[in-house]
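Narrative of accomplishments. A recurring question from our advisory board has been how the design workflow behaves on a single, concrete structure rather than in aggregate. To address it, we present the structure tokens for one chain from the evaluation set, followed by the sequence designed for it. No filtering or post-editing was applied between the two.
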């Protein structure tokens, strides 16, 4: 019996039926038209080996092609750069009968264009659900603008505008100005559709960001009062805490102050006002005014049962994490093993969607702690601020109450050789 010779299209359909992972990889690449092993892993939860094997098989079938001849592709993230894959011009026809209508070949013009599109994918895959890519938004009088991403948010019906930006010289400031005004006008025209906070992700290293950021801040000064807040970060910073719907800790793009050097010099030389002590009558007036303030700002209403339950639940969370390794049956408390279970529980807890903002704050706070490791006093102060101002503040707890935390540092010649916490 003679074997049937399959056409290329039939071979593709046959392979997709044999290997369902191929279809999932195509689905992951469709919104952006580009992908790498890493983006496929995030979108599909595949292992690195599965993602790499699937992309190689799709390339062998002629569905995708690896970009190897476009020159150096710069995208400022941590780790080894990856060569991206894009759909071939044959992909629409090869996949037409399989239901993948959005698998289109991109027309990319050189390394910068490739890098821009790849950054859109690296950011967009972390949206709550699939974002709208290159979304065109009209905002009256025939005006419109195309935005890189409009990303859905969890628990918020409004999408967030996300723009990917490269280096920008001062002479091209008008481009930044047009973009800022476009974002502001779009948000103002569609307040029920677009979130009032937009995000710009700069594909630049921390060292190269200041020059471009200065250009954008100059443009911000010319843009005037916008009807939105624009936050920003580098691609590397975003990838450390890749949450599009939790950006409250990122810096706000503010206008560059336009003071002259002469004005700044005059402010520096201005003497302090002479000290004039308060008279008894001044103090009496201040007491009366302070009491007026107190009446206008009454004490916070507290429901004891709810607050007691809050504390109980908070410590229950800590106990569940701690007991993994240090409980009665814990491997660490019994045999001195590495506390892997508690650390795994803590990692899973911090990566809960509800804790995205907390994790972002903790990562930033820990950077400040590491900067102050040179002196014991500074280090104690930094640790204290990290514990109270970052972690406990998220749970509504503050200093001055029954909860006290002592940070104990090693003493010369003492038994303790590591930093400890005494919680009372």
């Amino acid at each position: 019996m003679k074997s049937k010779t399959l056409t290329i299209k039939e071979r593709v359909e046959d392979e997709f039926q044999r290997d369902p992972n191929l279809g999932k990889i195509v689905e992951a690449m469709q919104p952006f038209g580009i992908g790498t092993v890493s983006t496929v892993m995030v979108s599909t939860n595949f292992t690195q080996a599965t993602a790499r094997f699937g992309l190689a098989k799709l390339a062998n079938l002629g569905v995708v092609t690896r970009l190897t001849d476009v020159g150096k592709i710069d995208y400022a993230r941590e780790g080894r750069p990856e060569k991206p894959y894009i759909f071939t011009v044959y992909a629409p026809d090869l996949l037409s009968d399989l239901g993948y209508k959005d698998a289109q070949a991109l027309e990319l013009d050189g390394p910068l264009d490739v890098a821009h599109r790849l950054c859109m994918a690296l950011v967009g895959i972390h949206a709550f659900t699939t974002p709208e890519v290159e979304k065109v938004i009209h905002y009256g009088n025939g005006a419109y603008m195309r935005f890189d991403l409009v990303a859905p948010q969890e628990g918020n019906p409004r999408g967030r505008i996300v723009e990917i930006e490269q280096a920008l010289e001062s002479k091209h400031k008008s481009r930044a100005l047009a973009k800022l005004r476009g974002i502001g006008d779009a948000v103002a025209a569609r307040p029920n559709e677009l979130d009032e906070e937009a995000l710009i992700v700069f594909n630049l290293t921390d060292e190269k960001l200041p020059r471009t950021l200065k250009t954008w801040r100059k443009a911000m000064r010319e843009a005037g009062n916008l009807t939105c807040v624009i936050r920003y970060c580098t691609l590397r910073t975003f990838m450390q805490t890749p949450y599009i719907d939790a950006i409250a800790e990122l810096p706000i793009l503010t206008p560059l102050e336009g003071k002259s050097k002469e004005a700044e010099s005059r402010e520096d030389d201005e003497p302090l006002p002479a000290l004039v002590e308060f008279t008894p009558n001044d103090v009496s007036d201040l007491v009366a005014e302070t009491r007026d303030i107190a009446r206008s700002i009454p004490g916070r209403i507290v429901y004891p049962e709810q607050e007691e339950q809050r504390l109980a639940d908070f410590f229950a969370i800590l106990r569940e994490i701690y007991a993994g390794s240090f409980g009665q049956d814990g491997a660490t408390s019994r045999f001195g093993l590495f506390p892997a279970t508690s650390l795994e529980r803590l990692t899973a807890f911090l990566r809960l969607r509800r804790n995205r903002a907390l994790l972002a704050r903790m990562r930033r706070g820990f950077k400040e702690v590491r900067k102050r490791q040179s002196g014991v006093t500074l280090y104690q102060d930094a640790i204290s601020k990290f514990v109270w101002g970052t972690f406990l503040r998220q749970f509504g707890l503050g200093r001055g109450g029954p909860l006290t935390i002592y940070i104990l540092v090693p003493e010369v010649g003492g038994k303790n050789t590591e930093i400890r916490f005494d919680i009372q």
